[in-house]
Amino acid sequence: MSELVVPAQADAPAAGSDVMVRAEQVHKSFGPLEVLKGIDLEVRAGEVCCLLGPSGSGKSTFLRCINHLEKIDAGRIRVDGELIGYRERGGKLYELREREVAAQRRAIGMVFQRFNLFPHMTVLQNVVEAPVLLGQEKKAAARERAATLLDRVGLGDKLGAYPAQLSGGQQQRVAIARALAMRPKLMLFDEPTSALDPELVGEVLDVMKDLARDGMTMIVVTHEIGFAREVGDSLVFMDGGVVVEAGDPREVIANPRHERTRSFLAKVL
Ligand SMILES: Nc1ncnc2c1ncn2[C@@H]1O[C@H](COP(=O)(O)OP(=O)(O)OP(=O)(O)O)[C@@H](O)[C@H]1O
Ligand SMILES: [Mg+2]
After folding, report:
1. Atom of ligand 1 nearest to the CA of 60
2. Dist. CA 124–CA 199, nearest whole Å
3. CA nearest 27: which of 65, 1, 56, 53?
4. How far is CA 108 from CA 75, 78, 112, 250, 254, in A?
5. pTM score, two decimals?
6. What CA–CA distances, in Å, run from 191 to 1, 44, 90, 109?
7. To test the ligand 1 pocket, which listed residue (37, 60, 72) has its Cβ within 8 A of the most ligand atoms?
8. What residue ranges line ligand 1, CB within 6 angstroms?
9. Quick check: 211 and 35 in contact, CB under 8 A?
10. Nearest Cα residue to atom 2 of ligand 1
11. Per-residue confidence band for 17, with pLDDT thresholds at 50, 70 and 90
């Protein structure tokens, strides 16, 4: 969004600011292929930002940059005021150590298209695993919290089941509970429903709606226009590695200003 003309080295203060994610001029190439060509984006705390765009436009790459699964070539990404992946000194960026990056990632939950659950663990163990392993919580407390989270995503009766015994929608809800177990301040979703049979999409979107209502800050890559319209606070349309258009989802969907947005929406609507 265009009001993001901040001096490149200003270390934005976290206190008093309710911006959760601020990306400025994020560039990313894979070899000769320039995938992100200067992405600016701002998501306020408690907002749901829906990211739309054609295949190959760089949506997944951008999400992966937000938790530094990809290094960026230029620009800055801040989450809750903290520069992600780098330390800045004298206008220069130095990449953080793996341990420091891991600490930043803990605050950022990510849910992918494929559920990536541990197949040899029960539903409960899948959710308990990370917080206990990382020493965030004692086992008993983690189990109790995991059970509460699983209940919240409608799986209170499946704690002892294995992933293979669940439907895709149920597995994806476990994946959401597992991400929430880390008490993230931001959740990133990359097409969380696109691998699901159509009749299972709704149950996952309902869990995400519930999360949004609860005030979770979310960036959601999705082709579910209904979700974007109903739940999104902002909609960002990307194409060719740039933000073509961004704004109120209802506004953008009803009155896309750019031809590229228009033709994309015509295809997915
Ligand atoms: N690790 C990688 N190495 C090389 N090229 C990559 C890599 N990851 C992504 N790309 C390329 O970057 C471009 C953007 O990919 P990306 O996955 O971000 O697109 P997308 O918008 O998420 O698309 P889709 O809707 O299909 O998921 C594509 O051309 C892709 O082939
Ligand atoms: Mg993708």
Report:
1. 22
2. 25
3. 65
4. 20, 12, 13, 27, 32
5. 0.92
6. 22, 21, 38, 14
7. 60
8. 30, 33, 35, 53, 55-61
9. no
10. 30
11. low
Rounded to an integer, the average pLDDT of 190-194 is: 96
pLDDT for 12 equals: 45
Give helix 168-180 / helix 139-152 axis angle, nearest 10°.
Answer: 130
CA distance 31 to 10: 30
The yes-or-no verdict on residue 1 having pLDDT over 70 is no
Give the pLDDT score at 11: 46
**Position 116 confidence tier, pLDDT thresholds 50, 70, 90:** confident
Give the full edge-to-edge strand order of the sheet including 217-221. Answer: 108-111, 186-190, 217-221, 48-52, 234-239, 242-247
The amino acid present at 13, given as its one-letter code, is P
Q: Which atom of ligand 1 is nearest to the CA of 57?
A: 21
Q: Give the tokens for residue 198.
A: 């159509």
Ligand lying nearest the CA atom of residue 30: 1
